[in-house]
Amino acid sequence: MSKLTLGLAFAAGYVVGAKAGRERYEQIRKSAAKVAENPRVQSATDAAKEKAGEVAAVAADVAREKAGEAVEAVKEKVSSQPEQPGGPLSTAP
């Protein structure tokens, strides 16, 4: 799949950077469309999307867990400190 990615990146760079004209652009665009329609490419794309979804779900779970731990640590720190008159959380003038 890395060769395919490299090839597509090269083709995109060529299209953007070259001054080959509209005819060459259309030729490359049609070739890219054929590649995108290839069942193997579609299968690889679907597998990549699925894997990305799985990784994102795991990352979200880890982030949620870490955020909960951070909240608990802050709560513990705040509740363990003695209240000071005129402190930042005080309502006294």
Provide an overview of this structure.
With about 90 residues, the protein is mainly alpha-helical. It has two domains: about 35 residues, no CATH class; about 40 residues. The chain is built from three helices and no strands. The longest helix is centred in the middle third of the chain and has 42 residues. The model has no long low-confidence stretch (mean pLDDT about 85).
How many domains, as an integer?
Answer: 2
Largest sheet data: none
Helix and strand pattern: HHH
The count of β-strands is: 0
Give the mean pLDDT. 84
Strand content: under 5%
Derived from helix and strand composition plus strand pairing, the structural class reads mainly alpha
Outline type? elongated
By DSSP (H or I, 4+ residues per run), the number of helices equals 3
Ranges where pLDDT stays below 50 over 5 or more residues in a row are none
Helix content range: over 70%
Radius of gyration: 27 Å
Distance between the termini: 67 Å
